[in-house]
Amino acid sequence: MSTANPTAKKNHNPKLAVILSILLAGLGQLYNRRYVKGALFIILEVSFILTLGQFINYGIWGIMTLGTLAGTDHSVFLLIYGFVSLILIAFAITLYIANVKDAKRDAIRLRDGEKTPTFRQAAKNVWDTGFPYFFVTPGLVMLVFIVVLPLLFTVALAFTDYTQYNQPPRNLLSWIGFENFGRLFFGSGTGDSNIWQDTFISVFTWTVVWTVVATTLQIALGLFLALLVNDPRIKFKRLIRTILILPWAVPAFVTILVFAAMFNDRFGAINTDVLAMFDLAIPWLQDPFWTRIALIMIQTWLGFPFVFALFTGILQSISKDWYEAADVDGASRMQKFKSITLPHVLYATAPLLIMQYAGNFNNFNIIYLFNEGGPPVRGQNAGGTDILISWVFDLTFELNQYSMAAAITLILGLIVTGFAFFQFRRTRSFKEEGNI
């Protein structure tokens, strides 16, 4: 008894449908006798070529050359046009791949004798199965142009010679490869050219010290106060918690400005009222060392209330049965802290604590509002308390060193992303349930 499908078309070639779809979107569908779908693909491709073909050609030329006529071609605009063209090409390739797959799938169905849905049925199936993608797509498109495009532009600037003395449209930009990164890491030439390397090493070192010390202190103080308030022997816990949370309730920029006035060398209350009793006067805003000490103390004050509130909630959720069992075993207070309290606290809060470190690594507000990254340092183009993000701000808006600012931004992003990813992967809270 024959089992062959009588509706099968053995002479229908899926490879030919694929080739036709590659030559022109929609031809494969026409070969499969899906005329409406094929016509739509053809109209879409022809419209794309006619409306955007010239723009894409101009954009690709622009991103490759960055212009050829100084005063006429604007390298920055050409760079943006180029990336927009690449994004449009990526969308077009995605649709083209979908067109080829659709033609191949329908051709295989025809060859095997399977029933192919009508256009109305296909449209209904697409809506039923793909409606989440229809709602996500507009947001994805906006994300690409609002977030991805500026990121690509910043990365590209890091490989150009865009400086205060080489700005379009008066001058054309050029691709210089990794020269900016070489100036930061290894220096270039002699004399003043090494200022970039010296400044980068100094700023990067202080950024790491600032991040580690300030964040660790605010976490340690928050944990200490949370343990203290959580002790059953402490009374008036609600009042104490309310008082300790108050620094968090005041806007950070207000607190920073108040502290900037208090630490002022000439009229600040710390020098004139507190240290004057001991015949001391510290140059808080003139000496980089003391400015850094002041910044660390201010950040500790600003950061500990959040950590305190976080740890307080975690401590209250730890079962008291474990402490009672530890008392039966004769464990000391320190042993109970190391074996019960600390592991539970870190397990529940590790991602948020990592975010504290990452946030302080890019904490622009306190550095800028307190002393604008000062005081100045001889032989460097950054202030004594500038961290990488505030140095980028100065390079962009004051020194107009756009390409170097972009290079530092790229380094900054890679450091924060790598650190956060590495630490998250090491924390148990990042692992999937059942794989802990």
TrEMBL record:
Keywords: Cell membrane, Membrane, Sugar transport, Transmembrane, Transmembrane helix, Transport
Listed Pfam families: BPD_transp_1 (PF00528)
Single biological process term from Gene Ontology: maltodextrin transmembrane transport
Statement: the UniProt record of this protein carries the keyword Cell membrane: yes
GO MF: ABC-type maltose transporter activity
Transmembrane segments annotated in the record for this chain: 39-64, 76-98, 133-159, 203-227, 239-263, 293-315, 340-359, 402-422
Lineage: superkingdom: Bacteria
Domain ABC transmembrane type-1: 204-423
Membrane topology: Multi-pass membrane protein
Oxidoreductase recorded as keyword: no
Major subcellular site: membrane
InterPro entries: MetI-like (IPR000515), MetI-like_sf (IPR035906)
GO cellular component: maltose transport complex
Subcellular localization: Cell membrane
Role noted for this protein: Part of the ABC transporter complex MalEFGK involved in maltose/maltodextrin import. Probably responsible for the translocation of the substrate across the membrane.
UniProt record similarity statement: Belongs to the binding-protein-dependent transport system permease family. MalFG subfamily.
UniProt protein name: Maltose/maltodextrin transport system permease protein
Taxonomic source organism: Jeotgalibacillus alimentarius
Organism ancestry: Bacteria, Bacillati, Bacillota, Bacilli, Bacillales
